[in-house]
Predict the structure.
Amino acid sequence: MKRLCDYISEYMGVLVLLVAAVSLWFPASFAWVDTWTINPLLGVIMFGMGLTLSPKDFRIVLSRPKDILIGCLAQFTVMPLLALALTWVFSLPQELALGVILVGCCPGGTASNVITYLAKGDLALSVGMTATSTLLAPVLTPLLVWIMAGTMVEVDTLGMLLSIVYVVIAPIVIGLLCQRFLPRLTQAVVPYLPAFSSLTIALAVGIIVAHNADRLLVGGLLVILVVILHNLCGLGLGYLIGRLLGLSEPKKRAISIEVGMQNSGLASSLATLHFAAYPLATIPGAIFSVWHNLSGALAARLFTRLHHDL
């Protein structure tokens, strides 16, 4: 069973791509599941994250504040600014531009820790960055969306803040409490969480893609290009920032992956909850969910190969 779970988590990118392809060409396979389930699914993933976090993951914020500060500044500047620049360069329609900006303003993705581990990066820094950016998200994500998209659409910043608290922060806190008061149960399930999270992410992607299949098939090529560029530029600039600051190779890899991999499920969730009048806004998050798992896996292989060459 453990070997199967390891296999699922290792090939998460392939799994997500397969589910996305099936839901795109055969929407009925996932369209029967309503979009309201995206929030509970995201909550389950965040709950799993809470189960895997430990006090030492938060202590890194105090013991290595410089590294965490560099990483979080990069996280909440590089990706939002890249999103804004790409929507302007490619003259994206308002709805798609909103979706790209939502992705750019979200915290680091939950899969980034697995990818950093596979890439021989600084795993402690990666976990610390994910935890910190996630805790900052209720304030920074609505604020950044309002700054960058407020002229295009009406942004309910308070509503977004509360949504992130309910969908992201509360499940993490519950996971931490379970870890504190039910340690044996937590230790028993933690080895299987990466595979469970991979399956949950794949299901969420399948639901989002299935409900937007027609729109994706008609006008998806341009937004796919923008999403790919957004992710690749984030990975590249994250690594470059670490290099310019003279950080060690493991730290550069961790920051690269943390910056480039976004919590795109949260972006799609926020689009569904707060921008229902703009249904296309969910699409960039769905595409990013598929693509960044693939690019992350490829980046991990590239970094590992470089590690062996060194």
